[in-house]
Amino acid sequence: MVIKPQTRCDTAQRRREIALAARQLIADKGFEGLRTRDIAERVGINVATLHYHVPSKEALIELLAQSLRDEFIARQERRRRDGVTSLDRLRLEFADFRDIALNNPALHVVMTELADRARRDEKVAAVIRPMQLGWRDHIAAILAAGRDDGSLRPDLDPDAAATMIIGAMINARRHDKDIAFLDRVTAQIERALTRAGGSGGGKP
Amino acid sequence: MVIKPQTRCDTAQRRREIALAARQLIADKGFEGLRTRDIAERVGINVATLHYHVPSKEALIELLAQSLRDEFIARQERRRRDGVTSLDRLRLEFADFRDIALNNPALHVVMTELADRARRDEKVAAVIRPMQLGWRDHIAAILAAGRDDGSLRPDLDPDAAATMIIGAMINARRHDKDIAFLDRVTAQIERALTRAGGSGGGKP
DNA sequence: CCATCCATCAATCAATTGATTGAGAACACC
DNA sequence: GGTGTTCTCAATCAATTGATTGATGGATGG
Q1: C-beta of residue B20 within 8 angstroms of C-beta of residue B29
Q2: Nearest nt (C1') from A48 Cα
Q3: CB A42 within 8 A of CB A25
Q4: Residue of B188, B189, B194, B195 to mutate for A, most A C-beta atoms under 10 A
Q5: What pLDDT digit, counting tens, does each position of B103-148 carry?
Q6: Residue B155 gets which letter from DSSP?
Q7: Chain A CA closest to residue B200
Q8: Contact, A167 vs B167, CB < 8 A?
Q9: Using CA atoms, how far apart are residues B199 and B180, in angstroms rounded to an integer?
Q10: Structural fold of domain A68-193
Q11: What is the pLDDT of residue B202?
Q12: What architecture is domain B1-55?
C-alpha cells in the first residue's frame, strides 16, 4: 500500500503529507471511516508519529479543512481573469469546475463531506463557510456585472442565481459520473441567465 | 432524555420507532456519530432488544434508507396534482420543498447524509438512487410538458434543468437558515425558465 | 566528541462500540 | 393452569480506535 521509503522530515512537510493522505482516505471511505491508523499507514509513519505532528483527531480535521481551503485559494489565484464580457468570466467558472471534476474529483467529494461536517463542528465551519461564501460572492459579482453590462438578463438576483449555479453544478456531479451531463447543465444555466430566453421559439 | 414508558410491542412497530430515532440522531450528529446504543436509548429499549429487531448496523442503515424512501413516496402521493399549467405544477414542487424545509428539516439533512453514504454503500445506493432519479424525472416531466405547452421556454433541456432546480434548492438550504433565501432562489429559477427572459428590461 | 533537540517507533492503555448470551417477563392459545 | 412463542434486558465479549509512554536513532551546533 505504502511505497515511499520513509526518511525523517520536518513538521510542516509531514503535516502536508498527513493532510493529503487524510483527504484521499475521506474520498474513499467518507468521514465516518476516517481512522488515524489508516492515515499514518498511508503516509508511511507510526501512529505515534502522526500524533506527534497533529495532536488530536480534531486538530487533524481542522488541518484538513485548512489544507482544502489553501488549495481552493491557490486555484482561485492561478486562474486567468481575462474574460472580456461577464459571460466569458462565467464560462470560465464553468470550465474551472469542470477541470476539477475531471482532474481532481476527490476535491469535490471531500469538500462535500466537510460541508456536511461543518453543520455540527464549529472549527470546521469557521474554515469552510468563508470559503463557500467567497465562492458564491465571486460568482454573484460576475452575475451582477453581467446584469449591469447587458450580457446577462436584467432580472437577475445575483446571490440567488449564484447559489443556483453552484448547487446545480454540484448536483450534476453528485450522481452522473458522465462529464457530458455537467456540460448539459452548464449550457442550460447559460441559456437560462442570458437575455434571449429562447424568445425566437421553436426547436431547431 | 427518553420519556415514553416502554411496553412490549411488535417488531414492525419497533422497527418504525428505531428508524425514526436513527433519523433524528443522524440529523443531530451525522452518520459518523450514529451509535446503536444511542438509538436504543432514544427508543427507550436495551441495545440487545434493538439487535433483536434489527440484526446488524448494516441492516439498520438499510432500514433507515427504506424508511426515508417510504416517507418520500407517501409525500409524493399525498400531493395535489391539480396544477393547471406546467408552471403551476412547478410552483407546487417549490412549495413542497419549502414545506419540508420548514416543517421537517431533518428530512433533508438525513437525505443528504444518505446520499453521501450511497457513494460507497451499494445497499443504500440501491434504495436512495431510484428515489433521487424519480424526483429528477418527475420534475423533468413537468419541465418537458411546460416546454411543449409554451408555459416554459422552448430551449429547455428537461433533465439538465431538473438537476439544476434540485441542486439549487438543496444548496439554498445548505447554508442559509433563512427560508426567505430559498424563496429568492426559486423565484430566480422561475424567471430563468419562463419564456420572457426579462426582455422588457429595467428594474422595477 | 558530546549535549541537545527533533523525529520516530513498538508497546500499551482506556474508552468506545457492535454484537452475543442466557435468563426472565409478557402474551397467546388451548 | 400449562405451554410455547415473542419480546426484553443485564452482563459480557471481542474488536476497534484515539491517544500516551518511554526508549531509540539521527541530526546539529559547540
Answers
A1: no
A2: C9
A3: yes
A4: B188
A5: 999 999 999 999 988 988 898 999 999 999 999 999 999 999 999 9
A6: T
A7: A154
A8: yes
A9: 26
A10: Tetracycline Repressor; domain 2 (1.10.357)
A11: 38
A12: Orthogonal Bundle (1.10)
